[in-house]
Amino acid sequence: MLRWIIFLLVFAAIDIYAYQAFKTIFKHQWLPWVYFFVSLAVYGYFMYVFLNYDRSVGQTSKTLWAMGLFLLSFIPKLVLFFIMFGEDIVRVLVGGYNYITDNFFSGTSEKHLPSRRHFVSKIALGIAVIPFASLLYGIYKGRYNYKVLKYSLKFDDLPDAFDGFKLTQISDIHSGSFDDREKIEYAIDLINMQETDLILFTGDIVNTRAEEMNPWIDTFKRIKTPKFGKYSVLGNHDYGEYASWPSKEAKQVNFEAIKSIHNKIDFNLLLNENRFIEKDGERLALIGVENWGKKFKKAGDLEKAISSVSSEDFKILMSHDPSHWEYEVKSHKEHFHLTLSGHTHGLQFGIEIPGFFKWSPVQYVYKQWAGLYKEDNQYINVNRGFGYHAYPGRVGIWPEITVIELKKASDSA
């Protein structure tokens, strides 16, 4: 009960401060009522949806859009709160100074607390429009704004036969969130246009339940199988951890159904195992582990996955959660040349200026959160995700198809 009281008090404070900005600029009598009813409707709908959230079902389109509507209303108000609260701090300081000087030095007794300044409210509203417009764009356009990102990576010990070998990575499909078949088919066409040698999917094919993928089987089956195949691993959402099940058996049935999806779309699912990709008498080791996360399910068994791999093999590891690379892979006695992950989605919110600047709140949780990283001559690519989850949009962090070309370093000097 105390948690809900604190929750309501915080939101009331934010709304009151946000309202002050509107009140300072707009003098119409009807404005307070419009503001009040819109805010009440948004918060009321959000609370209704989540108080009636059914954990046996998991995330639905209703919860997605409730979250989207809530963020669309709340984030701009939060911006207004910080600006207007900052102005109040200044007003109190100025008022205190005026009180002291008037009462102890000049002997006058005038109004000490300055009024709200019109221009500050204008600036606050102008700044608040930016996240509002961005979130709105993220919902209607950004979530399907697919980008193809290409990297060329050089390795001294890459087998000669694989010089110029290309692989395509996708991650975090989250099929239960999709609602636009035309956009998804466009993304599948983008994947097929890359004409790479190998296609790899790094987990989270659904939000929770296997049946979420049923309407999309034929669509994803359209991904062409390249010469060296299509491989995949599981992500944290593929274990049914985020729903309530009537029994352990029901949860296991769902898990088995999720695993079978990969075969239905012609992907070879690797469960703590490896495959050798052979070309012209040489090979590289493709290793796939189940989900291993610092904060999430630890089903991955790296030792089991590399049981038949030698130290001399060139190794590509698929591991859904990049925290696996940070806490276990990069310091392992074996050298993993390239690790492919996803999971973070880049929080689906951030700012990126390619080659210059990259920021998202998720970087305070994950050290490797989007794009390519290198340490001790080992690479990890964290794919920003194909789909979306929780918030039905993307702002600044766009859905991604990654194409990586492997190059022999000595040949490119």
What topology emerges from the helices and strands here?
Layout: H1 2-25, H2 31-51, H3 61-106, H4 118-140, E1 147-155, E2 165-170, H5 181-193, E3 198-201, H6 217-221, E4 230-232, H7 248-264, E5 268-269, E6 273-279, E7 282-288, H8 302-305, E8 314-318, H9 323-329, E9 338-341, E10 351-353, E11 357-359, E12 371-375, E13 378-382, E14 400-408
Parallel strand pairs: 1-14, 2-3, 3-4, 4-5, 7-8, 8-9, 9-13
Antiparallel strand pairs: 2-14, 6-7, 10-11, 12-13
Helix pairs in contact: 1-2, 1-3, 1-4, 2-3, 3-4
Structure notes:
The protein is elongated, with a radius of gyration of 26 Å. The mean pLDDT is 91. The chain has 413 residues and is of the alpha/beta class. Helix content is 39%, strand content 17%. It has a six-stranded mixed beta sheet with strand order 1-14-2-3-4-5, with helices on one face. Helix 1 (2-25) packs across helix 3 (61-106) and helix 2 (31-51) crosses helix 3. The chain has helices at 2-25, 31-51, 61-106, 118-140, 181-193, 217-221, 248-264, 302-305, 323-329; strands at residues 147-155, 165-170, 198-201, 230-232, 268-269, 273-279, 282-288, 314-318, 338-341, 351-353, 357-359, 371-375, 378-382, 400-408. It has two domains: 2-140, no CATH class; 147-411, Purple Acid Phosphatase, chain A, domain 2, CATH 3.60.21. It is built from nine helices and 14 strands.
